[in-house]
Amino acid sequence: MKNLIINPYKRLTSRFAIALLLSPLLTFAQTQTLSLQKAIELAQSHNRDLRIDSINIYKAKQQTAITRGLLMPNISLTGQFQHYFQKPVFFGLNGNTSNSEKIGYARFGGEDIGAVQISLVQPIYNSGARHEIERRKLLEKQSQLSFRQREVDVVAQVKQNYVQLLVLNERLKLQKESIVRNQKALNDSRSLLAQGRALRVDTLRAYTSVKNLEPDVLRLTYALQISQQQLRNLLGDISSTDFVLSDSLELSPGDAIPGEEGTYKLSVQQRPDLQILTLNKEINDKEIDLYRSSRLPVVSFISQYQIQTQTNQFRFGNAAYPPVFFAGVQFSIPIFSGNQNVNRIALGKIERQQADVIYNNAQEQLKTEVKQVLASLVETSERIKTQQNVSETAELSYSITKYRYEKGVASRLELIDSEFALTSAKSNYLEAVFDYLSSKIELDRITGNVKEQL
After folding, report:
1. Interatomic CA distance for residues 57 and 144, integer angstroms
2. Options 2.60.34.10, 1.20.1250.20, 1.20.1600.10, 3.40.50.880; which CATH number does 34-86+111-447 get?
3. Which range, of 48-52, 90-94, 306-310, averages the lowest pLDDT?
């Protein structure tokens, strides 16, 4: 009985030991070093939204190819076979009898009839098909611009997520440093309390400070996990890989901020979504031309070569096969279609007016976005400079207060306040950095920039 109890315990212990030995290897296998440039390249290659839009490009090209078929020749081969249990009837061949108004008829011909014909229809003039092909080409270009716009958005999301991960890592590091400082203060307070050189309230205050920081560490840890998952989704990675970021938070807030007018002109030239709105107006014009062409004639060249035969009792080997061949021109002129064409033209003009209003509205919104993002760049740049000075001052103040506390000059409360001021100053600096980089990413998105630099 004792062996039965001990052996499973030993097996469990050995498995646990093996798992501990292999865990570093498993962790290493599930991590990957990732730079911002590499992240953007992976997203451009594997992002699922981009793949969907790229398929839309191929669909638009295929639709254009289908529409071109309206102007190409249409060749068809058809055949038929019929067996008559009673021979076909032809009326009027025997004339009318004097005492009856019935029309005479006769039955002649073969019981088995077969025919094969090959037909050709070549459009000569079809204005509607030409306008439809031009409209399809514009729609194809629109799908390409939609892909570019999606690429701009995805790249901006990757940059934003990458910066968020960097900042979260720094904030987690900052919180852990704060816990280490407060834990050391707690240990010192306990030691002094045991020696009778400190008050119990100082120890309780230090303990409270440590415990108040622990939930922030947990919150930042979960935020990092969620941000990692978001980055995997953007990169089209279905595995559980944890990315180790190789880039760092390098700032250059002293860079010249572009002017408002130049940024607006650059956005109008480069932004794919504005180009799509411009293209929509051309598409509406082509649709109006297409509706107007519905009132024009369609002319086609037609030709047919036919072989037919008749026989009895399926004796096609002894039957005759006389050919019939003809060629000509066929035209179709629409006369009245219930005012559908007139109403379609009126609808096209309304949609054209709507496209103008949408484009003008987008331009005005773009002016507001440009002004807002440039103002944010100026504000965050100045805030970084201020918070950097505050952080350096808080760090110096904490060093002085810590030295004074160790010499017995400063109180425990002064040290706790100084440490809290240091942590807050560094946290505010990281927040300013994040806001500044977010504004730069938004500026790239507004101007349609897909470069990896921040």
Report:
1. 6
2. 1.20.1600.10
3. 90-94
